[in-house]
Design a protein that fits this description.
With about 325 residues, the chain is an alpha+beta fold. The chain has one domain: Oxidoreductase, molybdopterin-binding domain (Sulfite Oxidase, Chain A, domain 2, Alpha-Beta Complex), CATH 3.90.420. Strands 1, 4, 5, 8, 9, 10, 12 and 13 form an eight-stranded mixed sheet that branches. A five-stranded mixed sheet has the order 3-2-11-6-7. A hairpin with a 4-residue loop joins β4 and β5. It binds the ligand Nc1nc2c(c(=O)[nH]1)N[C@H]1C(S)=C(S)[C@@H](COP(=O)(O)O)O[C@H]1N2 and molybdenum atom (MO).
Length: about 325
């Protein structure tokens, strides 16, 4: 098998370059931060959900082992194996999520309320990382719309911001390094969607996968999953959902605006500045596949009518 540039040049390239420029090694720093406190996460318990036949997937799911050992979760380090090695420090309980900003009824939802707020569905989605690989994952959750509706967005609300927990005791890579640049991103990790994207039935508030509670390394206890967008839009371990009038800033866009845009819909015809997005490698397979427009989720196309898809990275 021929290794492609996109197989070996993931997101950290930019971080290495920046670390080099300031004369330190961000990766080395990450390693320091996490030595000593390496604790693997516990095995997640079972979680019941009803398979939703509308969201089956034609291909078999990725092996559970791969989906829980090959992860991007920079709060634990930049290597794919860092999350499973270090995520034992995350404490997913007690946990609550605040829903605030431009809403009539701000909420603070305890994780136990979240688990009961709507019927838990199993939905098999494909997750496509901007780095050029994909997985097929049976997620458990319900539409983010259920939570947004409860909070009653006001007519001014146009966007939704999702924020990951900031706690360096639980996330070793958030410990400030030299120049306040611990771990590489401007913590906390934030992501955002337009309100209509967040309200779309495909956008999933996710609390489990493979019939189990969400493993720490996959974003316990609650994350979002947006299957037609590159994986980095799907923020893990969220503590806040904020409704805003202006487009929210996002962690990857702040780090490298020319490479990670706000929309970031999966699009085979829009290359990443450093690699093509025309094909992808499904984890567990050898031959590359053709990338599908919107990752195959054509039902969202109408959200972008009249917009220049080439500009929606
Ligand atoms: N808080 C947080 N959320 C995150 C990330 C991260 O580093 N931190 N990585 C993103 C990226 S790049 C991808 S591809 C997916 C990976 O999800 P998985 O590990 O469950 O497959 O999580 C996304 N959510
Ligand atoms: Mo990603």
């Amino acid at each position: 098998m021929k290794l492609r540039y996109s197989d070996i040049t993931p997101e950290p390239t930019y971080l290495n370059r920046r670390a080099f420029m300031v004369g330190i090694g961000a990766l080395a720093l990450g390693a320091c931060a996490s030595e000593g406190d390496a604790a693997p996460p516990p095995e997640p318990g079972p979680l019941k959900a009803t398979p939703n036949p509308a969201y089956k997937y034609p291909d078999p799911p990725t092996k559970y082992e791969s989906a829980t050992t090959y992860n991007n979760f920079y709060e634990f380090g930049t290597d794919k194996g860092d999350p499973v090695a270090h995520a034992g420090s995350l404490r997913p309980r007690p946990w609550s999520v605040v829903v605030d900003g431009l809403v009539a009824k701000p909420q603070r939802l305890d994780i136990d309320e979240i688990l009961k707020l709507a019927a838990l569905e199993e939905r098999v989605y494909s997750l496509r990382c901007v780095e050029g690989w994909s997985m097929v994952i049976p997620w458990i959750g319900y539409p983010v719309a259920a939570v947004l509706n409860r909070a009653e967005p006001t007519s001014k609300a146009k966007y939704v911001e999702f924020t990951t927990l900031k706690d360096p005791e639980q996330f070793p890579a958030q410990k400030p390094g030299l120049f306040g640049f611990g771990g590489g991103l401007d913590w906390p990790y934030t992501e955002g969607l337009r309100l209509d994207e967040a309200m779309h039935p495909l956008t999933l508030l996710t609390v489990g996968m493979y019939g189990k509670v969400l493993p720490h390394q996959n974003g316990a206890p609650v994350r979002v999953v947006i299957p037609w967008k590159y994986g980095f839009k799907s923020a893990k371990s969220i503590v806040r959902i904020r409704l805003t009038e202006a487009e929210p800033k996002t962690a990857w866009n702040k780090a490298q605006p020319s490479e990670y845009g706000f929309y970031s819909n999966v699009n085979p015809t829009v290359d990443h500045p450093r690699w093509s997005q025309a094909t992808e490698r499904r984890i567990g397979e050898f031959r590359r596949r053709k990338t599908q427009m919107f990752n195959g989720y054509d039902q969202v196309a109408s959200l972008y009518t009249g917009m220049d898809l080439k500009k929606l990275y």
